[in-house]
Specification:
- By secondary structure, the protein is mainly β.
- The protein contains no helices and eleven strands.
- Strand 8 (81-84) and strand 9 (90-95) form a beta hairpin.
- The radius of gyration is 15 Å and the shape is globular.
């Protein structure tokens, strides 16, 4: 599952999440955003599942995959889309929205809005 929120200074805070039931010693999210460095973005296991959060540029499409135990590549079943890769498979795709908030030096952080994107629906949940 991918969750998107407004981040600081116009960035999009993207949380990549996998179920805790996935049996692995290590899981990394690897993609365009970290130059496909295999160990750059580890996912952390908690009661809620495996998670990693990144602040990405808005209005972009990033390809990524999950690397389990340094040897198994997996796609995200809840990705925004898929793109063919040069290895004969597909990469998952996350598309970052553009928010209207602008970054001003010394400005207070914008209120967060949660965007949960699934292939068939978009849900906006206002912050309380």
């Amino acid at each position: 599952m991918i969750t998107k929120r407004t981040g600081p200074c116009g960035k999009v805070r993207v949380t990549f999440a996998l179920p805790a039931a996935i049996w692995a010693d290590t899981i990394y999210v690897v993609g365009d955003f970290n130059n496909w460095e295999r160990r750059a973005t580890p996912m952390r296991l908690s009661d809620a599942g495996w998670m990693a959060t990144l602040e990405l540029e808005p209005g972009q499409a990033y390809q990524y995959r999950y690397l389990l135990n340094d040897e198994e590549w997996h796609n995200d079943w809840n990705a925004d889309g898929y793109e063919p890769n040069p290895h004969g498979g597909d990469n998952s795709l996350v598309i970052t929205p553009e928010f209207a908030e602008e970054c001003e030096i010394g400005a207070a952080p914008a209120r967060e809005r949660v965007l949960t994107l699934n292939p068939a629906r978009l849900r906006l949940v206002p912050a309380s």
